[in-house]
Amino acid sequence: MADGIVRDDLLLDTDERKALRESVAKLVGSYGRSYFQDVTKRGARPDELWKDLGDAGYLGVHLPEEYGGGGGGLTDLAIVIEETSAAGCPLFMLVISPAIAGSLLAAHASQAQKEQWLAGVADGTKRIAFAITEPDAGTNTHNITTTAHADGPDAWRIRGQKYWTSGIDDADAVIVVARGTEPDARGRHPISMFLVPTDAEGLSFQPIDSALQIPENQFTTFFDDVRVTRDDLIGVEGAGLRQVFAGLNPERVTAAAQANGIARFALARAARYATDRTVWSTPIGAHQGVSHPLAKCFVEVQLARLMTMHAAKLTDEGADPAATGSASTVAKYAAGEAAAAAVDQAIQTHGGNGLSNEYGLSDLWFAARMFRTAPVSREMVLNHVAQHNLGLPKSY
């Protein structure tokens, strides 16, 4: 654990996974929070850290061995992402390229696509962005307007735009979720997914002025008659809405893992400061006004970690998709709430110093707060739980 003070080893990991946690923490800890802050401040990228993670096999720990991966599961990737964040380096591209794109390709890509891309995703030499969100569609993927227009028997022209496309400026390709032109019997347009090189003619992107202080930039992405062929189609044409959950469930689990790691980092910093900081005759951590809020955050973070690992385990065991989806969604909700509260309380524990970037917390706040909104907002999580877990009438 960051700062070596918080005992948060409450999870029952196997010996192999304990070793994985320790080795990732050691590698990323050799870079640390100040490295990550410096890279972000300079508008650069943590390429050295990314390369080391790839060389060590951590980026592809969950991908099939025959395509250069480690042959593990989502649980292993969640551990990698949590420990990376707990060391003060929350790499959002870990959630996007290995977790979303890597999982989607492993589940639904053609043999040729797997051979072309998965080894690069696993060792970090290739990065893939993901474009699904649109300004007017939000969570309602049925309502996307980015459309794949037929351009002959085995080709399409993609037209439309996406929003909050993270890290596309640093990616070699982007998975695009697009609808067909003809509605089905229910009046809905079948969804398909395409793997599009980022240098494709007609693809462009503009940066969004974001409050997130992370190396990955956010973009509005435009598709102006971007031509794709059958070779670029991921899986089955028109089945993309079902297939996309091979990436969205891992996204929620690994986003939860990242939030949990951020929370652990913040609580460790706060516990160290509250132990060392003495204003009157005792350390400030001896006062319950300081210690109890931190203890409450600790409990909530541990509960979120347990749910996250449970959701990952269900995925790895091939459990019922409804159970896996619910567990992933609940885990993301719990982790987002716990992380936002933990970072906020850690800042409060530091008093005025909590607003100084020197202490590595204030610039984490928006990153932690983001997990209450994405992926999938807390309100939509509650809608899902109300309907699918409590049997209440659908509210949207």
Model description:
The protein has helices at residues 15-29, 32-41, 47-55, 74-86, 92-108, 111-123, 240-243, 245-276, 288-316, 321-349, 365-370, 378-389; strands at residues 128-131, 147-150, 155-166, 173-179, 191-197, 203-207, 218-229, 233-234. It has 396 residues and is α+β, with helices and mostly antiparallel strands. Strand 2 (147-150) and strand 3 (155-166) form a beta hairpin. The model has no long low-confidence stretch (mean pLDDT 95).
What share of residues is helical?
A: 40-55%
| Total of DSSP H or I helical runs spanning 4+ residues | 12
Classify the secondary structure makeup into a structural class.
alpha+beta
E-strand count: 8
List keywords for this structure.
396 residues, alpha+beta, 4-stranded mixed sheet, 4-stranded antiparallel sheet, 8 strands, globular
Gist of the model:
By secondary structure, the protein is α+β, with helices and mostly antiparallel strands.
Question: Secondary-structure blueprint of this entry?
Answer:
Blueprint: H1 15-29, H2 32-41, H3 47-55, H4 74-86, H5 92-108, H6 111-123, E1 128-131, E2 147-150, E3 155-166, E4 173-179, E5 191-197, E6 203-207, E7 218-229, E8 233-234, H7 240-243, H8 245-276, H9 288-316, H10 321-349, H11 365-370, H12 378-389
Parallel strand pairs: 1-4
Antiparallel strand pairs: 2-3, 3-7, 4-5, 5-8, 6-7
Helix pairs in contact: 1-4, 4-8, 5-6, 5-8, 8-9, 8-10, 9-10, 10-12
